[in-house]
Design goal:
CATH architecture of the largest domain: Alpha-Beta Complex
Oligomer: single chain
Pathway: Cofactor biosynthesis; thiamine diphosphate biosynthesis; thiamine diphosphate from thiamine phosphate: step 1/1
Keywords: ATP-binding, Kinase, Magnesium, Metal-binding, Nucleotide-binding, Thiamine biosynthesis, Transferase
Strand order of the largest sheet: 8-10-7-11-9-12
Bound molecules: adenosine-5'-diphosphate, magnesium ion
Strand content: 15-25%
CATH class of the largest domain: Alpha Beta
Order of helices and strands: HEEEHEHEEEHHHEHEHHEHEE
Largest sheet: 6 strands, mixed
Catalytic activity: thiamine phosphate + ATP = thiamine diphosphate + ADP
Helix content: 25-40%
InterPro entries: PurM-like_C_dom, PurM-like_C_sf, PurM-like_N, PurM-like_N_sf, ThiL-like
Family: Belongs to the thiamine-monophosphate kinase family.
Number of helices: 10
CATH superfamily of the largest domain: PurM-like C-terminal domain
Radius of gyration: 20 Å
Number of domains: 2
Length: 326
């Protein structure tokens, strides 16, 4: 049974890559790293009920489990190559497990294929539903983007729009269904379930951004990580936060602002750029479709502060998602 499942995963995610000498099926995979490149490696675990709501479609779980990892590679300016998948599946009827695996693998492959990412191995066990994906990508030596290089005076920018995924989660928790309403709920829930890792943007930011992070826990929390790693502070203008028309149509301005500041799961990039290079970066990222919006700047201080639309400093109650908060 387990081996049939692994075969189904292998068939559905097949991806020919020259640098994979031995993929799924032996005791370990063998790969031939390109000479002279550094390897960026990341792993993320998704637990049902914590990282995705119960009832999420298997294909969406497959997509998201890879997307959150590719987003980490994007934030480093790395290009993806290989992945490992550790699946923990609940005990249930064989047909149900098979359906889950088929949907999961198809959702995973839908994102893996356009990026030529090869699934080269993994592990399959029984227990509460949980998925770990590890990814490997390439980056030229010394060119990776980190959280640590920001300078005072650098401009803070973000790709795409913020707050959509957290709004989608709230709509789901309120019982919204994607097949009802005017399409706003469907759009926001899709942003929660099928985030778009900004890989092309990450590559374009190499040698231009001074620091970069992907927004998984919320803008304030994640920009806070850039501040801590760079030994600086930041101020941002709430009026500049990029928000989708769907978010603004479904929620009032304050709720939409708070989703954009503190909601998690957007998987957009937040990065810092010296002022002289901002225009060029914005032109390039606009060409890539995601765009880049300037939202604030880095300061010689501590922490992140937010100016509201009236120019007052904002008290932000919930600064982001922390799994280990009391
Ligand atoms: P071993 O017991 O030697 O670790 P396994 O039976 O766990 O071998 O795995 C057999 C092969 O299938 C290995 O190549 C492993 O990498 C691969 N594999 C197992 N589970 C998965 C999975 N969920 N996704 C992809 N490959 C998997
Ligand atoms: Mg094993």
């Amino acid at each position: 049974m387990e081996f049939q499942l692994i075969d189904r995963i292998r068939e559905r995610t097949a991806q020919g890559r020259e640098d994979v000498r031995l993929g799924i099926g032996d005791d370990a995979a063998l790969v031939a790293p390109p000479p002279g490149q550094e390897i960026a490696i990341a792993i993320d675990t998704l637990v049902e009920g914590v990282h995705f709501p119960q009832g999420t479609a298997p294909a969406d779980i497959g997509w998201k489990s890879l997307a959150v990892n590719l987003s980490d590679l994007a934030a480093m300016g790395a290009s993806p190559a290989w992945a490992l998948l550790a699946l923990t599946l609940p005990t249930q009827a064989a047909a149900q497990t098979r359906d889950f695996i088929d949907g999961f693998a198809d959702g995973f492959a839908a994102l893996a294929q356009p990026h030529r990412l090869a699934l080269i191995g993994g592990d399959t066990t029984r227990g509460a539903l949980s998925i770990s994906v590890a990814v490997h990508g390439f980056v030229p030596p010394g060119k990776a983007l980190t959280r640590a290089g920001a300078r005072a005076g650098d401009v803070v920018l973000v790709t795409g729009t913020l707050g959509d995924a957290a709004a989608g989660l709230q709509l789901l928790q309120q019982g919204a269904r994607i097949d009802e309403g005017d399409g706003r709920a469907a759009y926001l829930i899709e942003r929660l379930n099928r985030p778009t890792p900004r890989l092309a943007a990450g590559l374009a930011l190499r040698e231009r951004a001074s620091a970069c992070i992907d927004i998984s826990d919320g803008l304030l929390a994640d920009l806070g990580h850039i501040c801590a790693a760079s030994g600086l502070g930041a101020e941002i203008d709430a009026a500049l936060l990029p928000r989708s028309s769907m978010l603004l149509g479904a929620f009032d301005d304050v709720a939409a602002r708070d989703f954009a500041l503190s909601g998690g799961d957007d998987y957009e990039l937040c990065f810092t750029v010296p002022p002289a290079r901002v225009a060029e970066v914005q032109t390039d990222l606009a060409r890539m479709g995601c765009g880049a919006t300037r939202i604030g700047r880095m300061l010689e201080s501590d922490g992140v502060r937010v100016r509201d639309v009236h120019g007052q400093w904002l008290e932000v109650a919930r600064r982001g998602w922390d799994h280990f908060a009391a």
